[in-house]
Amino acid sequence: MEASNTYVIDGVEITSKPPRARRKGNVPRGRHDEVEEPPSPPESSEVDIASEVQELASESHEFGYLDHPADVIITGSGKHFCRALESIILAMFGYITDTSLVDARSRRSISAAGKSLNQLLFHVLVECLYMHNGHGFVARYVRVEGEVDVQRLLQGDEPAEVTVSLYGDIYDRALHTCGTEIKAITYHGLKTQITVGDQAVTLTDDPAEGTSPDALSHFLRCMGVDSLKTAEFKLFAHVDI
């Protein structure tokens, strides 16, 4: 232990004590200190989705593209709304790159809701496009999970929500072709065609082309739930390039 020292200054005696040992404590972080966030959980691994990818590879979808003075129109067809929705999503990614060169090594999921078929279509495409523009992801295969109650949406009873699984990889110029950049999905020009036998309706915001409310009500009265489950759907969407 160090000895104490005594000093006399102006007649005042001052004794200095040896320094005391200080205990080291944990200093709490300040509110503005940067804290490293834990890494995000990894997406489904290639092993986890191998059986799903094998099943999806055996499926076929019908989609295409129509010319437009300013933009391009992507289309998707299929029995029931969900299959047509898968097709038009594949059309969108197929316009961005050659999806046959994309290795479906991981799975991403998006969810969207809408109060009508066209609104649901719009929100799904917006979320899928953000998966590419925001995260660089491109999908080779698509699966819409569950079913959409088309009749309830057409009647306006309640909104519907869907979850879409996208199987693909991060875009890499060294591996993937460079197609055309899609900047946005436009709500104007969205169209859904439903065909059951020799009867058909068109849902669009263009009064000159769309089916009138009275004709749509007649169509729904004639069609049962089972008929709509096997109806032919064709979806159209304008994309800003």
TrEMBL record:
InterPro entries: Archease, Archease_dom, Archease_dom_sf
Disordered as annotated region, ranges: 1-46
Record-level GO BP terms: tRNA splicing, via endonucleolytic cleavage and ligation
GO cellular component: tRNA-splicing ligase complex
Record keyword Calcium present: yes
UniProt xrefs under Pfam families: Archease (PF01951)
GO molecular function list: metal ion binding
Residue ranges occupied by any Archease domain in the UniProt entry: 63-195
Keywords associated with the record: Calcium, Metal-binding, tRNA processing
Family: Belongs to the archease family.
Protein name: Archease family protein, putative
